[in-house]
Specification:
Largest sheet: 5 strands, antiparallel
Strand order of the largest sheet: 5-6-10-8-9
Mean pLDDT: 94
Shape: globular
Number of helices: 15
Low-confidence stretches: none
Number of strands: 17
Length: 536
């Protein structure tokens, strides 16, 4: 973490990051022209002095005062995540249920002390990594069941403790942020090769707890694939799984905590599988007459066992918005990388698959050893748009636009009809709620048995009602994708926002088993209550 820089309590990044006033004005003018609006007035970002947070409902014990904060900045910054809904509430200066105290344990012993205090005093304990949740995963529970709520921020548990270069693995503390983790592994020539869009402001523990999906589109897509063993602190004791490359000894204890979203315990360390840093790269962008044609090519590529690092289809609108296409063709962003071997043969075969489905094949796909191989042209334009997207969210909120995303996964044979109905539903509800707007789609990940489509909504909002407008759009499309057999989330987690549809997606007896497990690890139900399940 950079010193002497403060994170925004209301949005993404540091306070000195983001669009300049001139850039914001230009973006507002573009949106006004695009949707035929009058001049768009920009709401200024909130200031701490404008917040009137409720006084903390609980008092920090004397033994924990050195690691706890009740500052307005810390409390506001830990009350919401970084989704558009969170940022809009911050822009409304709306904090009716703030975190009471933020704890920053410096080691596992202090973490245990915080949990013991919360457990004994009936205080909700909300685990906090980088706070990048977009589904309400770090918010305190509402109501009066708990005397208060403490956010437990693991930012000081930020070290690579041990590296096993022979087995290509490392023991890593859970509070380390993505860039710091990569920097500590680099001298060893290793990488975790897991780069979610939130990489800059998210942590290893957060990735594991939410079953994060990384930037790479095939093979090793979810953090699940990298976990070798876990160490977890729970209110009833420490759980540590055995470090082995694989095991058939019953249900996996690691799997119980991967994706548990902080309701069973707080991950403090993990042994993670690593990879050699890549040196060979090759990239290409392939236009297609339609998204469905591109999807057919991607299915063939994914089932051929080629495992490209990037294999993302952008529909016509997505390609245009990111600068990767003209707007009348879908684009496949394709890339391979390796630390071991040149890649011409892999790219050649993938491009043959594209040609089979009317893709326009580029003539200049050559293996190169520099990072620019996948950072130029349409692929580079899409990459830049992808990485800059979180920094635009403040401005989108300031403009009063309704802009958010929903993502899912579906099998190949169902995708064409699934996509048609989801797009039809989204366009219909956007027109009804906002009058006008757009919905675009891209694939974030692909598997031999199906893709993970990711949809982006952009529409003019009604000042003061943007959250309610998005909630109506989100509910309609979520109902549709669940009815059609998709999942409510492929990589954004469940949190609080996805609970109504997660409750419909999961088997009833599994929910009962999850509650039973929570009772074993967290009998008083203090850990992240209301996320995934309701405590008894």
């Amino acid at each position: 973490m950079a010193e002497n820089r403060r994170r925004k309590f209301w949005g993404w990044g540091y306070e000195d990051q983001g669009l300049t006033p001139e850039q914001q004005k230009h973006m507002a003018e573009r949106m006004a022209k695009r949707f035929g609006l009058g001049e768009i007035e920009l709401t200024p970002a909130p200031k701490e002095s404008e917040l009137n947070l409720r006084a903390p409902r609980v008092k920090t014990p004397a033994g924990l005062e050195a690691i706890c904060s009740t500052s307005t900045h810390d409390r506001a910054g830990h009350t919401y995540g970084k989704g558009s809904r969170d940022i809009r509430r911050a822009f409304r200066r709306d904090y009716p249920n703030p975190i009471d105290i933020v704890a920053f344990p410096r080691d596992e012993k202090e973490l245990i002390g915080v949990l013991e205090w919360c457990d004994g005093a009936q205080i909700a304990a909300v685990p906090y990594g980088g706070g990048s949740s977009v589904v309400g995963g770090v918010e305190p529970p509402e109501g009066d069941r708990y005397r208060g709520a403490v956010s437990i921020d693991l930012m000081h548990l930020d070290k690579v403790v041990e590296v096993d270069k022979v087995s290509r693995a490392a023991r890593i503390q859970a509070g380390v942020y993505g860039p710091a983790l990569d920097a500590q592994l680099k001298p060893h020539g290793l990488t975790i090769r897991h780069f979610p869009q939130s990489f800059e402001f998210s942590t290893l523990g957060g990735w594991i707890a939410t079953r994060s999906g990384g930037h790479f589109a095939t093979l090793y897509t979810h953090i699940d694939d990298f976990v070798e063993s876990l160490r977890v602190v729970t209110p009833t004791g420490i759980v540590e799984s055995r470090r082995v490359p694989g095991s058939g000894a019953g249900p996996s204890p690691d799997r119980m905590f991967i994706g548990s979203e902080g309701i069973l315990g707080i991950i403090t360390e993990a042994w993670m599988r690593l990879q050699d840093r890549p040196t060979f790269r090759v990239g290409a962008s392939v236009p297609f007459p339609s998204m469905i044609k591109a999807a057919e090519a991607v299915r063939q590529i994914s089932q051929a066992g080629l495992y490209p690092a990037n294999c993302r289809v952008l529909d016509e609108g997505e390609a245009f918005n990111s600068g990767a296409g003209s707007g009348d063709e879908a684009v496949l962003v394709l890339a391979f990388e390796s630390a071991d071997h040149p890649l011409e043969a892999w790219m050649k075969r993938a491009l043959e698959c594209c040609a089979d489905h009317d893709g326009k094949i580029p003539a200049d796909a050559k293996t190169r050893t520099d990072a620019d191989a996948t950072h130029e042209g349409s692929a580079g334009a899409w990459r830049n748009a992808f990485l800059s997207a979180p920094y635009l969210m403040d401005t989108v909120a300031a403009m009063g636009m309704v802009s958010d995303t929903f993502e899912t996964a579906i099998t190949w044979e169902r995708f064409p009809e699934f996509h048609r109905q989801v797009m039809e539903c989204a366009r219909g509800v956007i027109a009804r709620v906002c009058g006008k707007g757009s919905v675009t789609c891209r694939f974030t990940h692909v598997y031999p048995d199906g893709p993970a489509p990711y949809y982006t909504v952009l529409a003019p909002g009604k000042r003061g009602s943007e959250i309610e407008q998005w909630d109506e759009i989100k509910a309609a499309v979520s109902d549709k994708l669940i009815a059609l057999g998709g999942t409510i989330t492929h990589h954004h987690a469940v949190g609080r926002y996805h609970r109504p549809w997660y409750d419909r997606e999961r088997p009833d007896r599994f929910a009962r088993a999850l509650k039973a497990a929570k009772h074993v690890f967290d009998p008083r139900g203090i850990l992240n209550p209301g996320v995934l399940i309701d405590p008894d």
